[in-house]
């Protein structure tokens, strides 16, 4: 038997304390380590990134024992406050960032760029600084530079945390259509966040998307008539959220993205009927956040309608937010593969 619910019927309420307590790696990365990362031998930058992060982890909290005399008269600490992983999606940046978080002493925080901007919105900027200034390490996954307002906000937050002695670590995705010298990399990072750039050592990670490395193409969407049979085969004994796709995306407009993690509490699989191409940018950006939270929780997907590579318009896939949409398609495709592991009986 499958226990069926609807995401469109859920309206989670999340307190400020719950937001603060939720800044740790998702279950997908709950037990990863540097040793469990598998560098591609053809991409030496991946092994280099592991060594760089291990060295960085050893310095987190290292100044805790410094006395007043050493702080006043000792040799100035010239190490940078942060390390920045720059590479394409699917090369294991989140795995490495979570490994750093696990290896470092606490208190510490781990969250996506969007989750930190949501935290500022819930607490206020000053209270967020006060809360995080006591941490030894703050990890920011999927740093975004396509929203000027959020970029300025996070730049200021990270600068103030660095001034307070907090070590910082961040990742960002490249633009899939710009993988050469003109891609989003250290030069762009320094241009967009000039005040913050000198706080970071930039580590480049090359490679292809591991989610598609050696794997078959994404499964074709199911027919509506087949959804129930596949759901019973794949999700027997589990709690599944089954929604009409249009109803779900309309519902997301009324749920703040900071609550999408709680929206999925207890859900072990999702089934979407009549998936269609999203044509509005605001709707698409909200759905990207849901895709990230589904991937965090490793929730398999069964779907009918258009394939996920047609989920966003061609204009979106070549526009200013393209890296978000390519990441979402990559992650949803991986979850769709997981959702069709079994054939219906």
UniProtKB/TrEMBL annotation:
Keywords: ATP-binding, Cell cycle, Cell division, Nucleotide-binding. InterPro entries: ATPase_AFG1-like (IPR005654), P-loop_NTPase (IPR027417). It comes from the Bacteria. One of its GO terms (biological process) is cell division. The keyword Zinc does not apply. PANTHER family: AFG1-LIKE ATPASE, ATPASE N2B. NCBIfam families: ZapE. This is Cell division protein ZapE. The gene is zapE.
């Amino acid at each position: 038997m499958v226990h069926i619910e609807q995401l469109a019927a859920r309206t989670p309420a999340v307190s400020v304390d719950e937001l603060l307590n939720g800044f740790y790696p998702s279950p997908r990365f709950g037990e990863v380590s540097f040793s469990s990362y598998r560098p591609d031998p053809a991409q030496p930058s991946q092994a280099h990134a592991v060594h760089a992060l291990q060295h960085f982890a050893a310095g987190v909290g290292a100044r805790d024992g410094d006395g007043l005399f050493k702080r006043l008269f000792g040799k100035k600490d010239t190490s940078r406050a942060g390390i920045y992983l720059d590479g394409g999606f699917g090369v294991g940046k989140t795995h490495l960032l979570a490994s750093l978080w696990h290896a470092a002493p606490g208190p510490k925080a781990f969250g996506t760029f969007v989750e930190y901007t949501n935290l500022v919105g819930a607490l206020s900027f000053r209270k967020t600084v006060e809360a995080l200034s006591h941490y030894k390490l703050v990890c920011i996954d999927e740093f975004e530079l396509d929203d000027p307002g959020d970029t300025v906000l996070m730049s200021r937050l990270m600068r103030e945390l660095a001034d307070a002695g907090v070590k910082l670590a961040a990742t960002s995705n490249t633009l899939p259509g710009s993988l050469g010298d003109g891609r989003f990399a250290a030069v762009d990072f320094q241009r967009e966040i000039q005040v913050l750039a000198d706080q970071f050592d930039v580590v480049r990670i090359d490679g292809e998307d591991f989610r598609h490395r050696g794997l078959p193409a994404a499964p074709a969407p199911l027919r509506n008539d087949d959804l129930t049979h596949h759901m019973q085969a794949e999700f027997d004994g589990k709690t599944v959220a089954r929604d009409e796709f249009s109803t779900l995306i309309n519902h997301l407009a009324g749920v703040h993205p900071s609550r999408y993690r709680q929206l999925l509490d207890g859900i072990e699989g999702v089934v979407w009927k009549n998936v269609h191409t999203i044509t509005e940018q605001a709707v698409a950006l909200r759905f990207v956040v849901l895709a990230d939270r589904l991937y965090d929780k490793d929730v398999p997907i069964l779907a009918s309608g258009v394939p996920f590579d047609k989920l966003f318009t061609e204009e979106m896939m070549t526009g200013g937010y393209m890296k978000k949409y390519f990441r979402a398609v990559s992650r949803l495709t991986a979850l769709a593969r997981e959702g069709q592991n079994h054939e219906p009986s």
